[in-house]
Amino acid sequence: MDFLQISFSVLAQTPLPVKQSAFLLDGATGILLGVVISCLLIATGAGQILRRQPDSSVNPAIVQAFIRRVRAWWLMTAILAVTFMIPSPLATVFLFFLISFWALREFITLTPTRLGDHRTLFWVFFALTPAQYVLVAMGQSQYELFSILIPVYGFLFVAARIAVAGDYKRFLERIAKIQAGLYICVYSLSYAPALLYLKGWTDPQYEQTSTAGLLFYFLLIAQLSDLLQYVCSRLLGRNVIAPNINASRTWEGFLAGTGVTAVVGAMLSLTGATPFNPWQSAVMSIIIAIMGAAGSLAMSAIKRDRGVQDYGTLVEGHAGVLDRIDALCFAAPVFFHLTRYYFTTAGG
Amino acid sequence: MKFNLTGPFLAGLAKVVAGSSVRWVDCHPDTCQRIYFANHTSHIDAVIIWASLPKPVRDLTKPVAAKDYWNKGWFRRYLARSLNAMLIDRENIKVHRSPVDSMLKEIGDKYSAIIFPEGSRNDGTTLRDFKSGLFYLAKKRPDLELVPVYVDNMTRILPKGEYLPVPLLSRVIFGPPIWLENGEPKTEFLARARESVIRLREM
Questions:
Q1: Distance (Å, whole) CA A239 – CA B173
Q2: Residue range of the domain that includes B181
Q3: Any idea what DSSP says for residue A184?
Q4: What would the pLDDT profile of B92-132 be if each residue is shown by its tens digit?
Q5: Do A106 and B162 touch (CB under 8 A)?
Q6: Which of A117, A224, B106, B127 has the lowest CB atom count within 10 Å?
Q7: Residue among A220, A221, A215, A229 nearest A293 (CA)
Q8: Which UniProt keywords apply (chain B) (predicted)?
Q9: Chain A residues whose beta carbon lies within 8 Å of the beta carbon of residue B169
């Protein structure tokens, strides 16, 4: 519980929003972090109580899955909080680079490639992926190149390099696989840390606040909507969206979960960690929830096609990185662009 | 033992590059004398298997490598030494200096060895037939545990003819030890050993 003590002491000592605060973690983000930690404490407690029930009506496998999920969130929160405490967004960018790298290796490991793709893959892993994150770290000055590097140069390079390797078997399919991996795991995800560099806010009040709160808000809503949709599906689900892909995702769960997420989102805006007012925040939460559900479903479809349960089945049974970030990957670019277009002067 | 930093460094590097996860199926890491025999698909197989062993076991395990390749130039020699490798002469084979004899001499009554009975690298889809070395090892030293190892996905990480790795995820699976049965013929034993490696693929 050392981590708790550290974060609470930081909360107590951090001065109220100051321009150019030394830490990314300022007052508003601190409150958000406090809310998250309280929720995690409650979730951990609930998990332990459920587990101790001698003979409950709850399926022990579900309780186990819940406890494991809560543990993963603790880890994520801890890592994020620590990177926020380092006085530069670079730590967070580097963290997301590592996540992208790992997700991409899970993705490519799962989708078969041929010997002819070897050199292409080498450049994808060791040139395109780092380059994308270097551009993120260079901030909004590199926005143009950052937003086209992979879809323009990267995609054309992949096609050309595979052609040069001279293996034409399943050519189109192989290009598409590598491009999809690059797009989902690297390009889309890199929009999450890019949130830290947004500036030129239309709301002068928000100009004073660090954007760490915005990133934290995004991650929180995405994870929360995923959980709420799951819980609501369990409680009142009837009509399964795509039975062959995911038997537990229902329309009712999706709608109810998204609704609850919107309410939570509206309440979170009151912390001042985001530039949104309550109703704007509710709309943003709904969009994140929809994109998150779409991402989870799409990534499940890939898994079903390859006949695996989790991306992590490759690694010791527990869920892989991709299983944790599938919702983020689809929601991040949309959330980033909507925020940029409507809440900063750069976009408008 | 000499102070060796390169060995642990190489082991760590190989594990990061190949993202390997290790599984022991009906078998546990042990410092008793063993022959680990594995499918051969890539240059770095030996390093990966060696790196997958816990440190105390690793210190007592020597990957077997070809002398003609690993004795060329100071760098390869240095790598081979860091990895604790035993270099076996493939070219000057004489009656009293067969690879099996020199291997047995090197491991003495202390070390274990990692060998690739296919002789050379396969294409990653099917295992080649095993060469007879494993049989003679088992015959001369029936006390050695023969542990099958399956290395998964290494062909894609570093295929034959490539020198730059693609960091995909790989798996190293150790299976239950086998022994040479009394009076078991060579071909049957080798087929059974090959089968024991293939079976791990399905794990």
A1: 42
A2: 19-201
A3: I
A4: 666 666 788 888 888 888 899 999 988 766 666 678 888 88
A5: no
A6: B106
A7: A229
A8: Acyltransferase, Transferase
A9: 105-106, 109, 314-315
